[in-house]
Amino acid sequence: MNIIKNLILGSGPAGLTAAIYSSRSNLEPVLLSGNEPGGQLTVTSLVENFPGFENGILGPELMNSMREQAINVGTKIIDDTAISVDFSKKPFVVSTERNGELYAHTIIISTGASAKWLGLEGEKRLMGKGVSGCATCDGAFFKEKVVAVVGGGDSAMEDSLFVSKFASKVYLIHRRDEFRASKIMQDRVKDNPKIEIIFNSEIKDIIGEDKVVSIDIFNNKTGETKNVPLDGVFIAIGHTPNTSIFKSSIDIDDNGYIKVHDFTKTNIAGIFAAGDVSDPKYKQAISSAGMGCIASIDSLHFLEDNNLTQ
Ligand SMILES: Cc1cc2nc3c(=O)[nH]c(=O)nc-3n(C[C@H](O)[C@H](O)[C@H](O)COP(=O)(O)OP(=O)(O)OC[C@H]3O[C@@H](n4cnc5c(N)ncnc54)[C@H](O)[C@@H]3O)c2cc1C
Q1: pLDDT of the residue at 45
Q2: Distance from the CA of 135 to the center of ligand 1, in angstroms?
Q3: Contact 249/87 with Cβ under 8 angstroms?
Q4: Residues 231 and 245 in one domain
């Protein structure tokens, strides 16, 4: 049986950073890239907050460079997806879509999270051209512009407050007549003169050719639709962590995120989690990459402690 010392699931910033570190620790890592090679950054345009690029870098270009770097230092990348796992056995077993079963002494789960979207045609077409799923990442592009934030939870409140530092006006659009966000966050939003709250309303269309120019908002109480000119739309209706295949094998919180302690350790020794899959809070490329680094070093220590490095 061929046993992989360090198997990495996912090829976003967390997985590829883990792969670079594990390669340089002689762990001969194998990485499954999944059905979104490069991860979430491949659907965005300019990334201005990843250190090392004085003028920013395009998301797909950054992820391609990380992949090439991982290969150059010795990572074996398999373009395949994990479909089930058995963590009760040693070595651990991961079944894949096209390459059968893989056996590993340590596993780093870095399968990320998927942002939830409204499902509008204009949303997809204008992604990175005014439509964004990440206010922390893209808020600064909207200096003195008019934007909308969609959602009613703490993330939507946080995003509205963050974007209001740059934008001249923020419409906060929510489909119900009250927010589910914490009271303190709601109060901060209500006290902010740049934020206008629009309850009972849903975006029906995002309009624009090469960039967002307006949205159609449907009021689900009055049945009226109005067109609102603006420059950007931030979707803040939540994320779904990609953990369905791990649910019966590992500790997961109520929202589907893998529970970790000491940064990346799960409840099973030898299984680590890194990046958005275990991070409901920060959800950034650089924080994910940092966790990938930690997970790799933790894997090395586990292998050394259990005499499994040979
Ligand atoms: C539109 C948009 C713009 C963004 N802009 C920025 C920005 O400017 N700056 C910033 O710091 N952050 C930005 N982010 C957030 C950033 O992309 C994420 O925080 C980061 O990509 C998370 O990295 P990750 O490695 O944890 O997971 P992901 O990037 O989500 O990658 C997950 C990987 O896991 C793989 N995978 C999933 N399931 C399986 C499976 N069963 N088997 C094997 N592989 C699997 C996928 O194929 C994918 O490769 C943005 C996000 C979005 C959506």
Answers
A1: 81
A2: 15
A3: yes
A4: no
Give me ligand 1 centre to Cα 115, in Å: 9
User: Residues 8, 30: contact at Cβ < 8 Å?
Assistant: yes
Q: Active site residue: 138, 231, 279, 298, which one?
A: 138
**235 touches 135 (CB < 8 A):** no
Atom of ligand 1 nearest to the CA of 82: 42
Between strands 271-273 and 101-109, the pairing is parallel
Q: How large is the average pLDDT for residues 42-62?
A: 93
Tell whether ligand 1 has an atom less than 6 A from the beta carbon of residue 82: yes
pLDDT of residue 310: 85
Q: Is residue 205 part of a domain?
A: yes
Domain CATH for 23: 3.50.50.60
Question: Does the residue 95 lie in any domain?
Answer: yes
**Ligand 1 centroid to 122 CA: how many Å?**
22
Output 43 or 306, whichever has higher pLDDT. Answer: 306
Query: What is the pLDDT confidence band of residue 156, given thresholds at 50, 70 and 90?
Result: very high
Is residue 293 part of the annotated active site? The answer reads no
pLDDT at position 44:
80
For the segment 284-304, the average pLDDT, to the nearest whole number, is 98
Query: Which two three-digit tokens encode residue 160?
Result: 């509205």
The residues, ordered by sequence, that sit 6+ positions from 34 with a Cβ below 8 Å of its Cβ are: 9, 10, 11, 81, 82, 111
Number of domains making up the chain: 2
Domain containing 72: what range?
3-115+239-305
User: Are 95 and 243 within one domain?
Assistant: yes
pLDDT at 119 over 90: yes
Which residue in 79, 80, 86, 134 is the catalytic one?
134
Residues 104 and 244 in one domain: yes
Does residue 310 belong to any structural domain of this protein?
A: no
Cβ(168)–Cβ(145) below 8 Å: yes
Mean pLDDT of the chain: 96
pLDDT-based confidence at residue 46 (cuts at 50, 70, 90): confident
Considering the domain architecture, whether residues 91 and 127 belong to the same structural domain is answered as: no
**Judgement on whether residues 72 and 34 belong to the same structural domain of the protein:** yes
| 13 ligand 1 Cβ < 6 A | yes
